[in-house]
Write a structure and sequence with these properties.
Number of strands: 17
Mean pLDDT: 77
Number of domains: 2
Largest sheet: 5 strands, mixed
Order of helices and strands: EEEEEEEEEEEEEEEEE
Number of helices: 0
Radius of gyration: 29 Å
Strand order of the largest sheet: 1-4-7-5-6
Helix content: under 10%
Oligomer: single chain
Amino acid sequence: MTLATLQHLRSFSAGDHPINLEPGQIAFNVGTGNIDSSKNDYNTYMYVGNGSNTRNDEGGTVLVSNGDVGKGWIRYRLRNVSVHGDTVYGDLTVQGAKLKVEASQTTAGELVVPRKNVGDGPGTDIGSVRWNGDRAILQSWDGNKWDSTSKVSVSTSAPSNPSEGDLWLDPAGAEPYLRVYVKSANGDSWVLATNSASLTALQPGNGVSANAQNQIELIDTGSF
């Protein structure tokens, strides 16, 4: 094994890069200009000579366009999570009260949660969330089961693109009953959820089970 030599980049100015590094050589930039304290963003950059002809950051962006052949390097940020698009493996714990995902002026922000299906195993922490692909709903682990909160709409027209379990109340209808969106082998439809003379009303004993809070817990779609 050949030991590499150590080279320091001593200007401490943000944006400075070494021109050439021997394969295995390393250099650092710890300039205060790399620090954005308002975002708790403290960066130290390390350059590792890799014998290539290019001088890139770890995301592939060219940082220096000149230098000797075979003395290129890769720049790494010395922090837990690195460049845009990085993949972090294993458990990731966020210290503090919140996880914040922001959007830029040109890029939409989104938080991607695990995708699971009905019947998959239990959660590990109360408050954990997952996307249930089979039912197209977001669920959270309450310590005993994966639970969900359906959407409730008050409108004179049925909500567009409903998901199973969504509720809809038409206040101007001839029968202002509460309806629930149900998927069944006979077709997806809005079914009456309030007590009425209708044979399709969702009520205990008609394919509907309630929990301790008198909320709809289970809908047997085969009963309709």
